[in-house]
Amino acid sequence: MNLVETSRAIQQGNVSLGIELGSTRIKAVLITDDFNIIASGSYVWENQLQDGIWTYALDEVWSGIQRSYAQIAADVQGKYHMTLTKISSIGVSAMMHGYLAFAKNGALLTPFRTWRNNITEQAADDLTQLFQFNIPQRWSIAHLYQAILNQEPHVNEIGFLTTLAGYVHWKLSGEKVLGIGDASGVFPIDEDSGTYSTAFLGQFDSLHDVKRYPWNIQEILPKVLRAGDPAGTLTRQGAQLLDVSGHLQEGSLMAPPEGDAGTGMVSTNSVRKRTGNISVGTSAFSMIVLDKPLRNVYRDVDIVTTPNGAPVAMVHINNCSSDINAWANIFKEFAERLGVDLKPDRLYETLFLATTKADLDAGGLLNYSYLSGENITKMPAGRPLFVRNPNSSLTLANFIQTQLYAAFAPLKMGMDILKNEEQINADVFVAQGGLLKTQGIGQQILSNALNTPVTVMSTAGEGGAWGMAVLAVYAKHGVGRVSLEDFLDQEVFTNPDSVTLNPEPSGVAGYEAFMKRYQAGLPIESTAVQCI
Predict the structure, then answer these.
(1) Would 274 be classed as within a structural domain?
(2) Which spans of this chain does the record mark as coiled coil (predicted)?
(3) Is residue 345 situated within a structural domain?
């Protein structure tokens, strides 16, 4: 659209809003019906470790959303000289899993427990054994059952259980619903029915420790919707929550709220069977849309769904970019002492490009990027750790190479399970995330790590907020007009701007050498967790 057409779309309200609450940033984007971003806003936040629980304050959820929206409104006013008053459709996405429990009167019963908490091991093990279906520690049902096993008093008062995206959607629309992708991180989904597995619901309610509560599991879970299903409208109270200036009108169509995995699949056009995508950020996950069920149950492979309900094999790691960010801040501080002000893009570009001179095996250096526990390597807590021996080659190039290698290491371990045990691999992975923005450096390392081609689109840094906005546009099409796969192929990704890198044999060998050292050194990390 040109300037005049975009101005007309804004005036008529033919724009859609996508909001995503990620681990380190809340982002909102406003797009036209041709899927171009016309305004954006963001808010930086961090989880807090309080009484041993990783959490975010719900007050900051709203202050972050409101500031992000205010930036969009100001952007529209500045560029197009008009006030944003009407939005045709809105979608909310957020980090998946976790635990938000509310009483029947809407009161929060316990602080938000995020996906980052490794505190539900017994519950996850017991439920996996009961269902013969992998229940990760992050999932909402694992958090609920662990609270039951711990005999936490709040469990008796639960009237509603949801995710972060479901909570925000509820407050904006009054509807207690979830998109099927986000719901698949709450409780196992039955592909045929498109909702929670009836058999598993019955098994859970029959557990001795569950029977004594006044609720049953189905009545406290959100209703499950597929992409394209109507999920309510923006209420007057919701509009006031979103836009504190009071200009935004009620009535926007609400898309089913989704998890960041679902929006990652949409923003990389990876919802069709046998496609794969990877999202890298504070955490990282890879997903392959399955055309057949797995033969076995694996504790390191989750079964979730696309936003339209197809089963997906997902490998999720709790730690990816946080340790790199911490080291980058050290280099930034050093630059400031020299009187050099490095903007973030220049800082990361300078550090990442240094790896072009690195040894292929990273010079014998070793790093564990664990700010929190890591399920795949069976670490209950995190101790970021850098290790070298006297013969290691400690150079800047090798040091940064080690950081990037370590960021993807647990992901490779999980993906190797699918490749070696189930002979499942994507022909190419479409990847997104901030680590992939610098001239192909992270992209090439990821391709070498997985020994698979990796494609990065021009929207790699935008990620989920844009993907959620696309789902909001899709919601306007109505149920059944066109499948989500065809919608993305035929209307959204008609001329994708992307770059694909293939694995380099020498790089693959170098990464394998690093992985042998990484796996051999895991007892060092385990000892650090015990001693520090």
Answers:
(1) no
(2) none
(3) yes
24-59 pLDDT, tens per residue?
Answer: 899 999 999 999 999 999 999 999 989 889 999 999
Q: Does residue 514 lie within any of the structural domains?
A: yes
| Strand pairing report for 177-179 and 223-225 | parallel
d(CA 117, CA 140): 11
Considering the entire predicted model, what is its pTM?
0.85
- Is residue 109 within 8 A of residue 169, CB to CB? The reply is no
CB atoms under 10 Å from CB of 129, counted, come to 11
Q: Measured at the alpha carbon of residue 442, what is the angle toward residues 450 and 264, in degrees to the nearest 5?
A: 75
Q: Report if residue 152 sits inside a domain.
A: no
Identify the residue whose tokens are 């960010």. 325
Please state, in angstroms and rounded to a whole number, the distance separating the CA atoms of residues 27 and 19.
6
Closest CA to 14 of 26, 32, 39, 30: 32
Arithmetic mean of pLDDT, 459-476: 84
The boundaries of the domain holding residue 517 are 322-413+505-531
Per-residue CA distances from 332 to 137, 172, 244, 327, 443 (Å): 36, 40, 36, 9, 23
Backbone angles phi, psi at 435, to 5 degrees: -65, -10
H-state helical runs in 378-439: 396-421
**What's CA 163's distance to the chain center, in Å?**
13
**Residue the block writes with tokens 């990816």:** 320
What is the number of other CB atoms lying within 10 angstroms of the CB of residue 63? 15
CA distance 25 to 36: 21
